Amino acid sequence: MLIKVDQNVCIGDGSCVMIAAQSFKLNPDGKCYILNEDLGPEEKNQSGVVEAPNTVTMDPRDIIIEAARACPVGAIHLYEDDLSEISL
Question: I want to staple 10 with a disulfide (CB 3.0 to 4.6 A). Which of 29, 71, 75, 85 is the partner?
Fold first, then answer.
């Protein structure tokens, strides 16, 4: 599963962190980022979107899906390995 967080949309609600603390944290600006050993809290591309694959150190798939559904502004998007978007 590929996880994308649009930090331009994120309002720092933190519901994702409360549900999936092994997968998401808030950076010093209060924006969600993905806990992946290859990413730091400030890493993002030019459009403000952070993306990373789900790893074994992260929460199980169903917990990540629950966390994405809990985002009040829909800043978290999830994709299958074939890059089809997971319906939330």
Answer: 75
